[in-house]
Design goal:
By secondary structure, the protein is α+β, with helices and mostly antiparallel strands. The chain has one domain: Aminopeptidase, CATH 3.40.630. The protein has six helices and nine strands; from the N terminus they run βαααβββαββαβαββ. A hairpin with a 2-residue loop joins strand 2 (76-81) and strand 3.
């Protein structure tokens, strides 16, 4: 069933907060029993494959995520609508994501300090209503307030007209384009590297 459109002003009313101890329970509420998808808990890009796979059981990935939050590490940004958590974006210095360091197609293109956005998650009710673009713009605004200069991401350009939700977690290129990101590397035809430069 197609999502019913919300009022046209709801995107402008979204609030954005970095994940901390204070809003951890709301993060858990958003991710639900499945940890967003397959008990990931947004640890896929942060762990070796063997550790990540092991963490899918017994809340291992959830506890790993919680430990980093309690250590005050930058983890990502939550979007709220009327105090309800509706979306999430992993957002941290590129070097925090070990999977990127091992990537053959998304190697660093320079030695500049960048903050990466490797994945997003939007509550089902709020998908396909512009939330991803609003979230990216919210992150850019947040980054500007804390002095971050370059945002980097690795979204997909779908090869089919409709991409299943379970494959959209890395983000759709068209959303990043609408939020002001530009392609800086095309080593991967369908997974370009994009950046947003903050003045």
């Amino acid at each position: 069933m197609k999502n019913e459109p919300l009022d046209t002003d709801f995107l402008a009313s979204l609030q954005f907060q970095p994940l901390t101890k204070k809003n951890w329970n709301q993060f858990v509420q958003l991710f639900g029993n499945n940890g967003a998808c397959g008990n990931c808990w947004c640890m896929y890009y942060r762990l070796k494959k063997s550790d990540f796979d092991e963490g899918k059981c017994n809340d291992g990935n959830k506890e790993a995520m919680k430990e980093l939050v309690w250590d005050n590490q930058p983890m990502g940004i939550l979007a709220f609508y009327e105090d309800i958590p509706i979306a999430w974006c992993a957002f941290a210095p590129r070097e925090d994501f070990s999977k990127l360091a091992r990537s053959r197609v998304h190697k660093p293109i320079d030695d500049k300090l960048v903050w990466s956005i490797p994945c997003t998650f939007i509550a089902k009710k709020f998908r396909r209503q512009g939330v991803s673009v609003a979230l990216l713009k919210g992150i850019a605004n947040y980054a500007k307030t804390v002095g971050i200069k370059i945002l980097e991401a690795y979204p997909t350009i779908p090869t089919q007209e409709k991409l299943p939700d379970s494959f959209a977690w890395i983000g759709l290129y068209k959303s990043f384009e609408r939020a002001g990101f530009e392609i800086v590397d095309r080593t991967s035809k369908n997974r370009p590297m994009v950046r947003y430069y903050i003045e």
